[in-house]
């Protein structure tokens, strides 16, 4: 999610060249599925106004699935013209977030997303979906799980290959995650479910572990924990990819990702954004690196004196 969710809420807009550099670092670490950008209104999300150019610059790469958000048919046209193989439709489980985020009611968003998803599938694209504010809404607070389940049913009927459930503002806790998954996974197949946690309150990794226990195997994450939703005030970035990968490897689960190279990508992301990122594993690894460099410098100074 780093290049999309990660960049959409940053004050600094990265030049396309830097986005491609970051993508190359992620691919060098072994990432195989990347959300590159969003074909939304450039007035709403100026940080991703270069969507078409970005996709064209990256081009198709063997073994890589490139995805992007599309809010409407215009977005789909732009995504297809740029040459993407996957698009993602998105809507919210709460009315206020839906209006703030896409200027539509939930019912209108269901209609538009359904139309876009069906049209994309007809054109031979893979279609993913997101449902936001499942764990809570920044404007309304709690969101009824019955409402979530009903929307999930309708979204899966669009023919999505996967539906990602979003804790948009990072308010979820593991007990709530279990309750939500009990209800949602009774209505949609677990093979179609993905989880998208923001780490605003430090619970994203614990929530992912609960999801893993339910048999979910796709988790959205962003390098260094970059990101947030500009229409969800105060929301922090996604679960950091390195934190997730560290946990999964510790559990003996293969990801195909090289954690050291992921740290290199995280270091680059920090340099490009000009700020310290929140990923815990990244900071620990960079701290170790700094200490090792200090030790080396001291040893060289001692040698020079001797
Ligand atoms: P609107 O203003 O209601 O749109 O915005 P409109 O249909 O009335 O059109 C207004 C203008 O926008 C027109 O141009 C359109 O052509 C243009 P004008 O005639 O004024 O020159 N327009 C577009 N331009 C480029 N690409 C398009 C497009 N569509 C219309 N696709 C709209 C409605 C949906 C476009 C707008 O609200 C929007 O772009 N919203 C996106 C907001 C967004 O990206 N939010 C963050 C992503 S969601 C998220 O982060 C959550 C997630 O991570 C999961 C989680 O965390 O839970 C996925
Ligand atoms: Mg998000």
Question: Which terms would index this structure?
Answer:
single chain; 306 residues; alpha/beta; 5-stranded parallel beta sheet; two-stranded parallel sheet; binds 3-hydroxy-3-methylglutaryl-coenzyme A; binds magnesium ion
Short structural description:
By secondary structure, this protein is of the alpha/beta class. Helix content is 48%, strand content 13%. The chain is globular, with a radius of gyration of 20 Å.
Would you give an account of this structure?
This protein has 306 residues and is of the alpha/beta class. It is 48% helix and 13% strand. It is built from 12 helices and 7 strands. The mean pLDDT is 96. Bound molecules: 3-hydroxy-3-methylglutaryl-coenzyme A and magnesium ion. The site of magnesium ion has 6 residues, from loops.
Q: What shape does the CA trace take? A: globular
Number of strand elements: 7
What is the typical, i.e. mean, pLDDT? 96
Straight-line distance between termini = 51 Å
- Identify low-pLDDT runs: none
Task: Count every helix, treating DSSP H or I runs of 4 or more residues as helices.
Answer: 12
